[in-house]
Amino acid sequence: DMEFPHHSGNAVSLIERQVAILRDRGIETRHKLGQLIHAAEENDLLFQKTQQLILCLLNADSLDGIVELTKERITQGFDVEHFQLLLFGDKTMAENNPTRFKDSDTATEAIGSLLSNSQSYCGSLREQEIQCIFNHSSQPIGSAAVAIRTVTCPDNLSLSLMIAVGHKDAEHYNSKTGTLFLDYLADVLHT
Known about the structure:
five-stranded mixed β-sheet, single chain
């Protein structure tokens, strides 16, 4: 009888290695599935809150009522640090109702890049944009999400609606932040 000793050291069999790889992949897949389920639960909650807000808006009887109700519901129900709903119109609109309207020409100087963009924006804002949108907020605003909708009125006047939410953290709203619910709310309010 001959013996051939074989010292494999720390080597494992091919089957053991494949089982370990499959186990790691299973753990990673469960983790990703957990993240997807969590995101779906958060989106479902956001949808319910958005739906409740829209139903409440149906009962608002004035522009002031719509603005105040939206601000109240967004800041309390959605845990938003800063919220602003702005309307941009011509000088006459701004002069007749300065608390609700801003002059489009003046706003274009401060936030023209945002007003001309047809898509919602998430990220940091320049100081002049923060001052124009959030009315010189005493709290720091590091990032914001902004949705704008423009309507042409029957008399060929252009009216723009802006919804903006802000946060002190510069990374809270970024290019990866989804704007589905903000866009949806902007669409409902501008019609």
